[in-house]
């Protein structure tokens, strides 16, 4: 696992699990000008500061230091995505990385303010708040990032505190259609396969295979990533791995089409041409 020092913005590898320090982790949606792994290695500080996403990195690190945490993990600049082996290892490990974090900061870039009526029944029922409409709630990768952390704090685009997963659980449950208890269950395997699969039904990913890969941690599955295999094959491999590990065949019953489940899901979980996470 590679972490970013919150004070110096340098990175360090922690290859043995017992040596990993306490760290904060960021959950966010990607934009067009993210700070990448290569950027941190090759760009000058002046060039980094010119990137729109640098402020997000800087504020995440500052927030970590407020929590007395020296290290942070940010997917955009802690994973060398030019290495297929490293990317595969990271995606297969990501659920546990979020799970083991001291705190997860959910940064909602589309939420400008915290409305006065934010917690009113009227807003909850009608879904008119910018929080309810946040793109973060539509992304495939953000599903595991919502479920895995024990301690999750939500911030708006100005890094103003909105609330915790616990304090906002009713609101989050309404938005995501995930039962409040499901937001905090340590072992998701106690829930049916169909229920867990349904959580991703209206989420989107940029790369078509990722709609399957983003569910690996939710089903405690490790499998190789084969970008280019297409959504149908990726989802089929995921289904096969799930069937090997459980006698719960609700994965077939959920679509109501038995053996046609895979094609049904592929159509239902069609990818959307927007950001990676």
Automatic annotation (TrEMBL):
Q: Which residues form the Heterokaryon incompatibility domain?
A: 23-118
Which residue ranges does the record assign to the DUF8212 domain? 233-256
**Out of the domains of life, which is the source?**
Eukaryota
The beginning of the lineage is: Eukaryota, Fungi, Dikarya, Ascomycota, Pezizomycotina
User: What name is this protein filed under?
Assistant: HET-domain-containing protein
Ranges annotated as spanning the membrane: none
